[in-house]
Amino acid sequence: MRVLVIGANGAVGKHVVDRLKESDHQPVAMVRDTDQIPYFEEKNVETVLADLEKDFEKAFYNTEAVIFAAGSGPKTGADKTIIIDQEGAIEAADLAKKHGVNRFVMLSSMGADQPKQAEQIKHYLYAKHRADEHLKTSGLNYTILRPGRLTDEPASGKVNVHEGSPERGSVPRADVASVLVYLLSAPRAENKIFNLIEGSTPLSDVLAY
Amino acid sequence: MRVLVIGANGAVGKHVVDRLKESDHQPVAMVRDTDQIPYFEEKNVETVLADLEKDFEKAFYNTEAVIFAAGSGPKTGADKTIIIDQEGAIEAADLAKKHGVNRFVMLSSMGADQPKQAEQIKHYLYAKHRADEHLKTSGLNYTILRPGRLTDEPASGKVNVHEGSPERGSVPRADVASVLVYLLSAPRAENKIFNLIEGSTPLSDVLAY
């Protein structure tokens, strides 16, 4: 599939693009600034220049699937959490639906199921929750992935992917990316929500129950 | 009707309580802190102590109508915009629906129809937009009021209330409160959205077309 990666230049997004490149899929990296283009061109990855805060509809032409891995990050204010993490994701789902996208895989966050219970980053979890709720009722074929605390450790290739109550833990960003790409083509992942932490299951055995 | 005023201690909320007190309705002021209670008790207004950020379901027992006039205000960060203005309003609508509330009047903001076009306070307008969208699909009998820039001028009693495209302008908070209470009992206001600026129409003639 031709897969639009929203947030391709982010810490998870770059891994996602690499994993897609190794797969049968064709990544298209959505980037905001022209100076982000050479990084992907050197990898022979197609880019589309579009900004989540502006009109980014053109990014959806000929797109078969979307992996949404964008986030405003902790360095900006909570205003950007609303504008990017919540509303960027909501508009991306609306545009995906409008353009007949077949699959939408959302990078969410552990805790987004019950933001009111959160002790920290409550506003962020509310924003992710609201975006996830919108996706669930969008009519899109979706998968929502909610990883625990993200680390920059190298990929372990072994994970704990589960439905139901979240089990606290951390997980390398590189493994998160692998799971996002894996879920994209896993029929058992369709219209489901998963939590993810590092674990002992090889990626190839995920959902192989 | 027994009308729960959420945000009763706010700049608009206090006027709302006064207008309800003069009407056939019975206001119940939802306040967050015990030190906010005497102000209302001196006016013989019933209070309920509940916090939008915590569990405030008890405020809905025996409530027939709700006027939502709460807002985190400009002095707090955008994290509170998500938690109070957006999620507080969304949860209030859910609780109102759960408890069979007959009318829900929402104080929104001009510009909440098209937050993406906003040059200023875009995150705030997105939060209000998201709350309004939730209310519209809640199944509640709602009215959404979107005033222009709020001032502390005395009430003029004359307003411009209109559907359709917003017409920029300002309006005293005291008049906003009068319109909120007026709309509460106006059958023509049910399940509609209105913009409000100061104008030339006496309140008694609003929607009297």
Automatic annotation (TrEMBL), chains A, B:
Transmembrane segments: none
Domain of life: Bacteria
Descriptive protein name: NAD-dependent dehydratase
InterPro entries membership: NAD(P)-bd_dom (IPR016040), NAD(P)-bd_dom_sf (IPR036291)
Domain (NAD(P)-binding) ranges: 7-187
